[in-house]
Amino acid sequence: MRAGGHFRVRRSRGLYARNRVYIGVRGRESFEPWIERIEKRMTERVLDELIREIAPEWYADDLDSVMRLREQLLRRRKLVPDLIYAVKNTTRRPFPNWI
């Protein structure tokens, strides 16, 4: 969702609708390989290399918008662990076996 030119982060967005897919989640360590990739491997250099591979017509030659998205991704990668904890504590309880 956009609000005032910025995207709001919704805690439950991106979760699969059926909690049973998360039955094996026992804690943060269940997400650790993915979190590490986002925090440590999704570097500015990696994103820049990926951006160079995108055909300009795919983003209507609006490189400024692509670069803003790049900056958002770099900032938001640090939020992932907190968002996982936040969604864990919602009334939906997507991770019933979290210890």
Summarize the structure.
With 99 residues, the protein is mostly helical.
Number of distinct helices: 4
Number of domains: 1
The coarse overall form would be elongated
Which value, in Å, is the CA radius of gyration? Answer: 16 Å
The whole-number mean of residue pLDDT values reads 88
Strand content: under 5%
Secondary structure class reads mainly alpha
Percentage of residues assigned to helices: 40-55%
| SSE arrangement, N to C | EEHHHH
Number of strands: 2
- Identify the strand order in the major beta sheet: 1-2
Ends distance: 32 Å
What does the main sheet amount to? 2 strands, antiparallel
**Which parts are unreliable, with pLDDT below 50 for 5 consecutive residues or more?**
1-7
Structural notes for this entry:
- Helix content is 43%, strand content 4%.
- By secondary structure, it is mainly α.
- The chain has one domain (2-88).
- Strands 1-2 form a two-stranded antiparallel ribbon.
- The radius of gyration is 16 Å and the shape is elongated.
- The relative contact order is 0.20.
